[in-house]
Amino acid sequence: MPAIHFHVRWPDGSEDQCYSPSTVVKEYFQVGERLSVDAFVERADTALEAASQRVEQKFGFFCSSAMDQSTVIKAKAQQFGNNPQDMVEIIRID
Question: How much of the chain exceeds pLDDT 70, in percent?
Fold first, then answer.
């Protein structure tokens, strides 16, 4: 199962490389897409849950790294509050 990374730019200009154990995240994000922080967190959580489930289907156990990545994303998002104009941009998927 090929792991991939999706790279994001946060509203403060910082960039993060996010891990996924499955290419399924490509079904949830497109390069250049901009999402509100809340929408990004919700979609990332859904995508990483789907990726973890694919790992479980193949290997019989969930991927703790996917869940850890979701936790990191949620923690980072807390820095930005609820301003709907704050956007997260998907800058690369590889």
Answer: 99
Nearest to 69 by CA among 12, 19, 10, 11: 19
**CA-based R_g, the chain, Å:** 13
Kindly report the pTM of this predicted structure. 0.93
Strand order across the 34-36 sheet? 15-20, 4-9, 87-93, 34-36
Tell me the C-alpha distance between 61 and 39, whole Å: 28
Give burial (CB, 10 Å; 0-12/13-18/19+) of 86: middle
